[in-house]
Design brief:
With 158 residues, the protein is mainly α. The protein has helices at 2-37, 41-67, 95-119, 123-150. The protein is 73% helix and 0% strand. α1 packs antiparallel against α2, α1 packs antiparallel against α3 and α3 (95-119) runs antiparallel to α4 (123-150).
């Protein structure tokens, strides 16, 4: 009975890692699209930071999967280098909408990392997930601050 529970926990953790890699790939792809549409330089920087966090998390998740004898899901296509000076004309999605969607994606990533942290048993995994948790939390806080300053969200005055 104990062995079955341990195997089940391992399976759950591996499934969670594999699933999170797939979700992260979709966030990277959508963030590339948002980057092309946004005009605000600060929002572009936030998008780049989010993509960097996702890519770093994916490296760690892939390594954990390999350690457990699993293959990682296929990665998305490689996009051309994104430059802060790449500005387009009229955008189909405005910066406020991009900020809101990016905020939801960051929150979702934070929750996923929290759940992975909860499933972790090894100290190394706990440390890695703890670091990722803090990075996503700080990134989310920075995006909220940017959204307030730009007027994309209306926050109560204190």
């Amino acid at each position: 009975m104990i062995k079955d529970n341990l195997a089940s926990l391992q399976f759950k953790e591996i499934f969670k890692l594999w699933s999170q890699l797939g979700v992260n790939q979709s966030y990277i792809a959508s963030s590339h699209a948002f980057f092309k549409h946004t005009r605000d330089k600060h929002l572009k920087i936030m998008i780049l930071e989010f993509i960097q966090c996702l890519k770093e998390e994916n490296k760690q998740l892939t390594l954990l999967l390999k350690e457990n004898g699993m293959l990682a899901p296929t990665t998305s296509i490689e996009y051309s280098k994104m430059k802060l000076t790449d500005l387009r004309g009229k955008s189909a999605i405005n910066d406020g909408e991009i900020s809101a969607i990016l905020s939801m994606n960051i929150a979702s990533s934070l929750i996923a990392v929290s759940q992975a942290l909860d499933l972790s048993v090894k100290k190394l995994h706990l440390t890695k997930y703890g670091e990722l948790h803090m990075r996503y939390a700080l990134l989310g806080a920075k995006l909220i601050d940017l959204s307030k300053r730009k007027g994309w969200i209306v926050a109560p005055q204190s």
